[in-house]
């Protein structure tokens, strides 16, 4: 695959919603993207979940130790380093994306080329798959599934 316009980098530790997260990314109507999954030394069998998808856009890496447990910033920066796209979308193992998500993002990227970071609307989903479309602050979302976009232009780091 030549360098895609977008790279989804998915930092994974939990298995609960990983399959749904991957499926929601792969079902995007806009197709010019890669999906990089970084297993953050999870005790769960994430590889089997990832291997169940036969898609050339997926690349899988596994950390030797749990980086996110020490520093989330370092883990995200490590994930971003694998990205080949012009833009990076930071995803998690419990994020879900609408199928037109990337199509809509592409319109915004073209409309606002001077913007370096975008953050998308959050939709909470609990383990019973109930949805809450209210604007809940991100810090309150720790135990819920969420739809979150952080789009970073290539060669930018999340934090230094």
Automatic annotation (TrEMBL):
- Per its UniProt record, what CDD domains does this chain match? Glyco_tranf_GTA_type
Note one Pfam family from the annotation: Glycos_transf_2
Q: Which organism is it from?
A: Xylanibacter brevis
Name the lineage: Bacteria, Pseudomonadati, Bacteroidota, Bacteroidia, Bacteroidales
Start and end residues of each Glycosyltransferase 2-like domain = 7-135
Q: Protein name, please? A: Glycosyltransferase family 2 protein
**InterPro entries on file:** Glyco_trans_2-like (IPR001173), Nucleotide-diphossugar_trans (IPR029044)
């Amino acid at each position: 695959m030549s360098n895609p316009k977008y790279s989804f980098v998915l930092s994974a530790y939990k298995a609960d919603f990983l399959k749904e997260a991957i499926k929601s990314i792969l079902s995007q109507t806009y197709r010019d993207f890669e999906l990089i999954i970084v297993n953050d030394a999870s005790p769960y069998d994430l590889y089997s979940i990832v291997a169940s998808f036969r898609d050339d856009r997926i690349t899988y890496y596994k950390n030797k130790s749990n980086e996110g447990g020490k520093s989330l910033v370092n883990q995200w920066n490590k994930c971003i380093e694998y990205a080949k796209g012009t833009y990076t979308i930071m995803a998690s193992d419990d994020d879900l994306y609408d199928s037109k998500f990337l199509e809509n993002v592409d319109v915004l990227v073209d409309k606002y080329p001077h913007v370096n970071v975008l953050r998308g609307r959050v939709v909470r989903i609990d383990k019973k798959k109930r949805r809450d479309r209210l604007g809940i602050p991100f810090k309150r979302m720790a135990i819920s599934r969420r739809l979150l976009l952080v789009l970073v232009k290539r060669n930018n780091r999340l934090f230094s």
